[in-house]
Design brief:
alpha/beta; Pectate Lyase C-like; Trna Endonuclease, Chain: A, domain 1; 5-stranded mixed β-sheet; 27% helix; elongated; disordered C terminus
């Protein structure tokens, strides 16, 4: 067809041909065409637009565009369904709401391309470059995405997490499930790190470099807060889907934030409570007590008051009782002795608080058990008791934890 042959001769020739053949039906219909090696990357063909050629709405269905250079082009709303696009390059192209259903895209490149709203369902993207500029609402249903390369964590467009916002990421092809699980694991761990190393260059007013090196910064500070929260919530959902009760031990160890996925995991794998951070253990006890109806206040991380949690509970008669709770995240063989108990009980007495509770991931010595038997205002919870608490725990109806930012929250 004339339009196909004109396109093969390059964008400059095609634009001239199209301008002279406006009567031609379906100028942008290139379906069922052999366009292998098509080269549209011709900067001399650019007009005033950022893109070399506007092919928005074009139809390339069932065409062969393997090894094609489709860079710096506008393919918005175009149709590439069932096309062969292996090793094709869409570098810096605009593909907004473009359809790539059932395409062969092995080894293709979407480097810095805009892919918002693209549909890649049932397509093979294995080993493609996915260092995209943007990708809101990409559809990856039953797609193959093994070994795709993603943007670095702090590239200029901050698009490292774009993949996690794709639609149906949990429904990719079976062959790609492991790849997605690894991505979710990595993203989950990164999002829960307090700080990360970032390369930073600082210049003065004259452009002279005054600092060029590695600094530690909070990962949240690198992103728009709304975007970061959206990514974090999505990763939590994906993490729960893929792992549920199978969170990896490495993630538990590096996570310094209590979340519902972690609690769910510990319910099924209580022995791994020994791997969580001591502060997370304190938050876990506070969260469980809150779920039992207690009013809870968690002390600061740098507390020196001799206790970790202050709690108020109400008995069946409606009377309120106040408690000091100390949490000891100790190894299984490291028994909690009477010295710890006497210290907590002394703080309780000094502060004139009614009761004291000592919770530990370990167990207690005989001396502690004897002390408890003779003091009605002192209670203990060991590893087995915490397991029972975990099994009784039910999260808040809206899915959010009660404990956050070390504050007393009122419903």
């Amino acid at each position: 067809m004339e339009n196909v042959e004109a396109l093969k001769r390059g964008p400059k020739y095609f634009k001239e041909w199209a301008n002279n053949n406006k009567h031609f039906n379906d100028i942008l219909n290139f379906s069922n065409s052999d366009l292998k090696g098509l080269n549209l990357y011709d900067l001399y063909a650019k007009d005033n637009s950022f893109y070399i050629i506007d092919l928005s709405g074009a139809n390339f269905e069932n065409s062969d565009l393997s090894n094609a250079r489709l860079e710096l082009c506008d393919f918005s709303n175009a149709n590439f369904n069932n096309a062969i696009l292996n090793n094709a390059s869409f570098r810096k192209s605009k593909c907004i709401n473009t359809s790539f259903q059932k395409c062969e895209l092995k080894g293709s490149s979407f480097f810095k391309a805009k892919l918002d709203g693209c549909d890649f369902s049932f397509s093979d993207l294995e080993s493609s470059n996915f260092e995209i500029k943007s990708g809101k609402d990409i559809n990856l249903f039953e797609s193959k995405i093994n070994n795709i390369s993603l943007a670095s964590l702090f590239d200029d467009d901050l698009s490292y997490f774009a993949l996690c916002l794709a639609k149906n990421l949990d429904k990719v092809h079976l062959d790609s499930q492991n790849f997605v699980q690894n991505f979710v694991t990595e993203a989950f761990s990164i999002l829960h790190l307090p700080e990360i190393e970032v390369h930073k260059t600082v210049t003065d007013a004259d452009g002279v470099v005054i600092f060029d090196g590695i600094v530690n910064e909070q990962i949240r500070s690198q992103y728009n807060p709304e975007y970061f929260d959206k990514v974090l919530n999505r990763i939590k959902l994906l993490n729960g889907f893929y792992f549920g009760s199978k969170l990896t031990n490495e993630i538990i160890t590096i996570s310094n934030i209590l979340n519902t996925e972690l609690i769910s995991y510990l319910k099924s794998n209580p022995k791994h409570i020994y791997n969580i951070h001591w502060r997370v253990f304190e938050e876990l006890i506070a969260e469980i007590l809150k779920s039992f109806g207690w009013h809870i206040e968690l002390t600061s991380k740098t507390k020196d008051g001799g206790y970790d949690i202050f709690g108020i509970c109400k008995d069946i008669s409606g009377l309120k009782h106040n408690w000091l709770i100390e949490c000891k995240k100790w190894g299984e063989q490291n028994l909690v002795g009477i010295d710890v108990v006497r210290a907590l009980y002394g703080v309780k007495t000094d502060l004139k608080v009614g009761n004291a509770l000592l919770a530990t991931t370990s167990f207690f010595t005989q001396g502690v058990n004897e002390f408890k038997a003779s003091h009605y205002d002192f209670q203990t919870v060991d590893f087995n008791g915490i397991v029972e608490w975990l099994n009784l725990y039910k999260k808040n109806e809206d899915g959010n934890l009660w404990i956050s930012k070390n504050e007393l929250h009122k419903k």
